[in-house]
Amino acid sequence: MSINQTDPLLIADVDAQAILKRFHPPKPDWFEKFFALFLAKCCGYYEGKVAGYKAEIFSRLKGRVNKVLELGIGSGPNLKYYAGDGDVHVYGIDPNEKMEKYAQEAAVAAGLPPTNFNFIQMVGEALPVSDASMDAVVGTLVLCSVQDVGLALQEVKRVLKPGGLFIFIEHVAAQDQTTLKFFQGILNPLQKIISDGCHLTRHTEKHISEAGFSDVDIKRAYLSFCFPVNPHIYGIARK
Ligand SMILES: C[S@@+](CC[C@H](N)C(=O)[O-])C[C@H]1O[C@@H](n2cnc3c(N)ncnc32)[C@H](O)[C@@H]1O
What's the CA gap between 93 and 127, in Å, rounded? Predict the structure, then answer.
């Protein structure tokens, strides 16, 4: 497989198959279909509950960005936040090609012109876009799932223009010696299997804080209905 694109911001000569095999080894077709369907159809309640946090961080992009890359775009629940925002072009990266159908539908529903949305089957650890080409990178519930968080964050910094923004919402490990952390430890192996590599016990806020961004603003939130996928962090980091 190769990235056969004419967009000058995309790096076409990568061995996508080898990269995917290394960072997101293929899962059975039925699993990828099921996971994509689950994200597309069953996350409405969650999206409603995080809408306020998302509105807060996405408002920082309003009218200021042209090129946006989404890490692990999934079924595209964030695409509606770019609606009516001028000429935004979104590059949606995800290793699960079954997400494309739903992400394309979400792009249409959000009113993005077809030429302003590209779904690219790839991983966050090897973004197939040029250095300093993106005004913003967005990641929601994805650093829990990538295989190498440090590498993915270095890639985020590489593709951002100077001053570009990384905006994120992630669930992270609970505080040590809490009941929640205890259950996260027990449930983590199962979570990784049923949620395509998602970790309940990652200290993602530490990774983001130490990734070398010039300015990092991280807030915490607890979603009462979401045990054990808690607490959440959300915020903005500037390259
Ligand atoms: C929990 S879903 C979140 C999807 C979407 N961002 C959302 O907020 O609903 C995690 C997503 O990360 C993707 N993913 C898994 N490993 C990845 C990697 N190494 N790089 C980029 N995306 C990855 C999965 O295919 C899935 O679409």
Answer: 8
